[in-house]
Design brief:
globular, 2 strands, Single alpha-helices involved in coiled-coils or other helix-helix interfaces, 7% strand, 6 helices, two-stranded antiparallel sheet
């Protein structure tokens, strides 16, 4: 299988930098998908526009559920690990959301009463 080399931070084009920096700030890391998409500023900005439109249309819980279902259907272990991992700052409760299957954390549990 052919693999694409991940660009280092200094290899990311300047036109992609604002989106990559925003994602890195939000997630406290830069996922490999963003590093690869960043090689084409048009592709990265198109993806970011799509995500922005979906955020206005679908709530976060539904988007997460769709991402998890697609990851499972595609058998993508990388995606599944991302979709089923707690947020870095959240303390896990050891429980899973009944709809999405994602682990719940103290913050989510307090917000939803679970």
């Amino acid at each position: 299988m052919t693999r694409i080399a991940l660009p280092a931070d200094d290899q990311i084009p300047a036109a992609s930098r604002p989106v990559v920096d925003a994602v890195t700030k939000q997630l406290k890391m830069t996922p490999n998908l963003f590093r690869i998409l960043a090689l084409s500023p048009d592709a990265l900005n198109g993806w970011a526009a799509l995500q922005g439109a979906l955020a206005k249309t679908l709530d976060a819980k539904l988007r997460d559920g769709i991402a998890l279902a697609v990851s499972q259907a595609n058998g993508c272990h990388y995606c599944l690990s991302v979709e089923t991992t707690d947020e870095p700052d959240d303390e896990p409760t050891g429980e899973r959301d009944r709809q999405t299957g994602r682990p719940t954390n103290r913050q989510t549990s307090q917000q939803t009463g679970r």
